[in-house]
Amino acid sequence: MNSQFSGLQGRVFVVSLGLMLWLTACSDGDPTEKVLVIGIDGIRVDILAETNTPNIDQLIAEGFFSDEARTNVRTMSGPGWSSMLVGARTDKHLVDTNNFTGNDYTTYPEFLTRLEQVDSSFNTLAVVDWAPLATTASGGPLFSDAIDQLLFFDGGQEGYHRGDSLSVAAAVNRLESEDVDAAFVYIGDADEVSHATGTYAPEYRSAIEEADVLVGRLVAAIRSRPTYADEDWLILVSTDHGRDEEGGHGGDSDSERTIFFLAHGPSVVREPIETPPNIVDVAVTALVHLGVEIDPAWNLDGRSVALRVPPGQ
User: What is the domain-level CATH number for residue 42?
Assistant: First the structure.
């Protein structure tokens, strides 16, 4: 690769932003709600707990965390990411394997497209390196061309370790300098490593530690924004599925279906909740934080988790 973006494929839609107008608009009034969703592929919660992850640990200490959240059968990436980002289960978005053909993303779009449909003034960003999320590979993409910026780095060609690094670098660049309202960043290498080496291999733990470093860079980018003091950032971190004893997934064992749900930010309530979160709660929580009223006609399955209810609601 000759430059950070020379591996970019698929669609990239760049919005020209006036920095001075942005700074002026954010200087007064109530904090502006923003959302960053970080998706780390294939994390088993008990291995996460045993791994050195200081950045994730700090978010947990300051926010809401559940290691009893659940994903839905089947525990594959296609249905997992679809359910997380759409806010509805497989019987609605119709992605049941890693082949996305036959999906109903028209009725059930991912949350960034949903935001654009509600109000096109939202500035939306997705940065990924797994092809079906951003390209027509395997019946994709999950993310539509309605969002403002869709950046794809091919982890299948580059290797997911490098692809993740390029993705996060691109996301950091935009989070630091642009008026992003809602973003999703995908980190995929840990899943690939576990498939190759196994659930209990030191290489899998190392890959989770590398993912934690990338999470730290994304959080630092948000905190370095010139308007950060005037913003209310909700950071959501989760995974699409766990793993079985051999390092695979796709079944319905507890270790495969148990995931984590992490929410961090000024609007987050840290108290435990009665019912553990579900993977479909991620998209709905993001939408609610941004002030979007969930229309019953959307027929979503998720709920808002761990957010403070504003006065008068």
Answer: 3.40.720.10
